[in-house]
Design brief:
The protein is 70% helix and 11% strand. It is built from 13 helices and five strands. A five-stranded mixed beta sheet has the order 1-2-3-4-5. Helix 1 packs parallel to helix 2 and helix 8 packs parallel to helix 12. The longest helix has 40 residues.
């Protein structure tokens, strides 16, 4: 019988090898996380070199064995030709026996290994995406019908409108957003005036900076920038508010008590948005013109009177009302898609976050899409 010993940090081992292909490992000390990796590597090399028919692990002198020690035993058993050769434990003390019993050592290797799930084929994913979008379109149309019916009911029964909630929503959507809308519009007008002045000054056409700023802001940039800011602030807030009520089952409670959730929650938000977003757009136009005025006075040597006179000459009532009308449409889209995403929340808090993100992204997409439609219509109308 051959014998040799080894030292693995807090654990020692002795190997006794018989002439019939049997090996006995006498382990001493601790079998824990500090030496588990080294033991697995050493025992693996031992099994590969000797290729025994039988391996016995003697745990009589093991003073401590934890989950990692049990893992060493499991891996050592796997090394024995996947269980075809003989493997056994002997002299298992009470403490080690208790740990192995808790971990159900005998069945650890018998369980099927986790198999990597293959991703579905391209056609399957395409079909799933198509079904998902078709289902989403169905929900979208259903919600649109519910909103239209609720609006008709409120128009025919004005007292059914929740006025307090409508005024509160007007304050949050309009009044609270005024500082950020004003600041961004002022800076936008300032930047446009500064950049255009560099080119127009070469031709002695400084005064047309006022025309460029006022016309572009009133017809295009004012409504779009205001709508994007409102989508980021209020559209996400609508989705988060209704989504939170959905997961806390407050909407189910409203339905059970006989309230129409669409009329109760959505209509005040839509009406408030349609009223205040066009007003915000007018403020945005004014602040942008002021920004351009500052650049005109400071860098182009224009007088305030000349700048304002040129702005009034450029703008028509049609330009102003066009921006206001587009803002009303954008407000309807923002409130509608924000509330829809809130009603689509399922599951927990993470779903609310996804709904708010989707509300903002969908709102911005619809704003750009409808603005493009308006541009095409105006191109052939004017």
């Amino acid at each position: 019988m051959k014998r040799f010993t080894g030292d693995l940090q807090s654990c020692k081992y002795e190997v006794s090898e018989s002439g019939q292909g049997s090996i006995t490992l006498h382990v001493q000390g601790k079998m824990d996380a500090s030496n588990a990796a080294a033991m697995i590597e050493t025992f693996s090399d031992l099994v590969k070199d000797r290729q025994p028919r039988s391996l016995t692990v003697d745990l009589q002198k093991v003073s401590y064995l934890d989950d990692f020690g049990a893992l060493v035993l499991v891996e050592t058993r796997k090394m024995m030709s996947n269980g075809k050769d003989h493997f056994c434990l002997q002299n298992v003390n009470d403490e080690a026996s208790k740990v192995l019993s808790i971990l159900n050592f005998d069945s650890l290797e018998k369980g099927d290994a986790f198999k990597k799930k293959r991703p579905p084929a391209v056609l399957i994913r395409l079909g799933e995406a198509t079904i998902h979008h078709a289902s989403d379109l169905k929900v979208l149309l259903s919600f649109m019908g519910s909103v239209c019916l609720s609006l008709l009911h409120v128009c025919s029964h004005p007292k059914s409108l929740r006025r307090d909630d409508t005024f509160l929503c007007m304050q949050k959507t309009g009044v609270d957003a005024l500082p950020i809308v004003g600041l961004i519009s002022f800076l936008l007008g300032l930047i446009m005036a500064f950049m255009s002045s560099v080119q127009l000054r070469q031709f002695g056409a400084d005064i047309y900076v006022a025309s460029l700023v006022s016309l572009s802001m009133t017809r295009e940039l004012g409504p779009i920038m205001t709508a994007i800011i409102v989508a980021g602030r209020s559209g996400s807030a609508f989705a988060a508010e209704i989504g939170t009520m959905k997961i806390s089952e407050e909407i189910d409670a409203l339905f059970t008590m006989g309230f129409d959730p669409t009329r109760f929650l959505v209509i005040p938000k839509i009406i408030a948005s349609i009223i205040v977003v066009p007003l915000l757009t007018l403020f945005s136009d004014v602040f942008a013109i002021i920004g351009g005025l500052v650049v005109g006075i400071l860098t182009l040597d224009l007088t305030a009177n000349a700048y304002i006179t040129q702005t009034i000459k450029t703008l028509t009532l049609f330009d102003v009302f066009l921006g206001v009308f587009k803002s009303g449409v954008f407000a309807l889209l923002i409130a509608w898609i924000g509330c829809l995403r809130g009603f689509q929340v399922k599951g927990g808090a993470s779903s609310v976050g996804q709904a708010t993100t989707s509300a903002v992204v969908s709102s911005i997409f619809l704003i750009i899409l409808f603005n493009s439609v308006f541009s095409v219509i105006l191109r052939y109308w004017e």
